[in-house]
Amino acid sequence: MDHSKKPFVLMSAFVGSHLSAVLPIAQNLVSQGYDVYFLTPTARRSMVEATGAKFVPLLGAADFTEEDFDSMGPGKTESQKSGPEGLIYDMIHYFLNPIPAQYESIQSALRDFKAKDASRPVVLLNEAAFGGALCVKLGASGLVPAGLISIGIVPLPITSADTAPFGPGLPPDSTPAGRERNIAMNQQILETLFKEPQEAFQNALKSTGASTTPYFFFDAAVRVPDRFVQMCHPALEYPRSDAPSNIVFAGSFPPNESGNWANRPEWWDDVAVNSEKKRIVFVCQGTFQTNYKDLILPTMESFREDPSVLVVAALGVRGSSIPSETVPANCRVVDFIPFEEILPYATVFVTNGGYGGVQKAISAGVPMVIGGASEDKPEVAGRAEWAGIGVNLRTATPTKEAVSEAVNEILGNPKYTQKVQEIAADLKKSYRPFATIAKAIDEIAAVYKDGNMS
């Protein structure tokens, strides 16, 4: 397609991993000749511009990052710092209340596009948690783009008769009794735990002139867009007989090129050469929940006396360290390590269940032990267990005995490695995530009629 005839692409994402997860899409689209504009907080300008996309600032109350959370809303009580109450607080103040300002930011950008070339289509491409984009499909006042594509970078959260409510990580159950249970639980949680967030969602929509929707926010994020592109292999999602037809599985992002890590530790040959042919257990605490005592310490202690195992621990925060006396002789600790560098050597990955890290491990064909209890992590762990590619610890703070049992289950049972390597092979063979997204953009733009952005 001629560059001047490609649609404008307006991307949007705002906090933490939600932004970093979709930056590779921007970079790839730019390389294909699309004019990519990216709505994101002012503080993240350099991240966007590094992809070659054009930075567009979020406006007003939408211009914030996770560093601003403590100053938003009335402030968390002790009970709101974790668990269900914490989830509700976060949803309302960080994801739902900013919707009107997010929508106004989109409208400002659309007005600029119209001034540039009113005949050229604009396709919105948002990370699914960016709720302001939904307003363009729900009749809000203002300009209407050619279409909306949402990118799913967390487990699919949609309500289904075949699955329990999203959050606690319960397994699917499509038997008659299971469906009856699921329907009752889903209804109950919407009428209790999620009642206040749903009211906040509907109020945010109404303030933009959009119509209210019968969908809960999690469902609207998936069902309202023209296309919903889920960034995983379908083997990592529960089958749902009532899933909407707009969902497309694009597979995982291909791994970055290895070999670009400039600051390899002096012990790196213990991993890359591994002359003693040790089994390598890689443990990463994550970049948000970073207490090394949660996963790293029990993993190191699990194998302190096992000379056949080398534990490699990544603390998740650049410049961080732990007391040297806590590190056994068969362990190596580093503040940060690119997954692309370590996963090709790993036998098992012990993780707190961050979706991006799990997807990278799947692409590398590495089975997992997952211990996470916050955000979407129980759902990530549940899917890995259901798919047969990992062991679910069902806690973020396991004992060393629990970690040892889980890792040894994988080391002693080849079914986990075989299954994850089957999925990894199919990802390489059958899925082209960037091409899938570009195809969706072009198909939506193809039905655009001159002057319909009005």
From TrEMBL:
Gene3D superfamilies, A to Z: Glycogen Phosphorylase B
GO MF, any single term: UDP-glycosyltransferase activity
Signal peptide boundaries: none
InterPro entries the record matches: EryCIII-like_C, UDP_glucos_trans
SUPFAM superfamilies membership: UDP-Glycosyltransferase/glycogen phosphorylase
Keywords attached to this entry: Transferase
Ranges of residues in domain Erythromycin biosynthesis protein CIII-like C-terminal: 325-433
Name of protein: Erythromycin biosynthesis protein CIII-like C-terminal domain-containing protein
Source organism per UniProt: Coleophoma cylindrospora
